[in-house]
Amino acid sequence: MVETITVVGRVATDPTQGQTGSGVPVTNFRLASTHRRFDTATQTWIDTDTNWFSVAAFRQLGENARASLRVGDGVIVSGRLRVRAWESNGKHGTSVDIEADAIGHDLRWGTTAFRPGPRRTGRGDAWDASDRSDETEAPAVESELSPEDSDWDAPMIEHGFADRDLADAREA
User: Fold this and answer.
1) Which of 58, 65, 93, 112 could disulfide-pair with 105, CB 3.0 to 4.6 Å?
2) Residue 129: helix, strand or coil by DSSP?
3) What is the pLDDT of residues 56-81, one digit of tens each?
4) Nearest-angstrom CA–CA distance, 21 and 23
5) How many C-beta atoms lie closer than 10 Å to residue 57's C-beta?
């Protein structure tokens, strides 16, 4: 059984990059998630327990994480939870690992500027974002799908939206 988990915390170690035995790039870092509670006696917020996670991000996610994250950054990590026992030099313990599916900055604590990386077209070709002369407009991405293949014209109820939801969104 695979558990999916989302953790809000702070990057505790510099992201480091390595490779798996089969040559897949992986970026690793430690994530500290400290719980806080309001102490009514002192009328202040206090830190309680801290949970520690080892995060592994593979391939492009790992490359982007290594380039984007620094120690102390507030982040949100979502991925597959793995709890494993370990033993090394006569010591043993338990490690709680997250194999990341998504990582992002926690915007409660600051701002971030998103720069798109290389994108894939429908045929698997990639464009390099560093070659772009105009940072505000991404190049057109070709698709092998025809307009007939798109279901955007289908009634919105099929996408989980009712007409009244759309009307409410337009008025807001």
Assistant:
1) 112
2) helix
3) 999 999 999 999 999 999 999 999 99
4) 6
5) 27
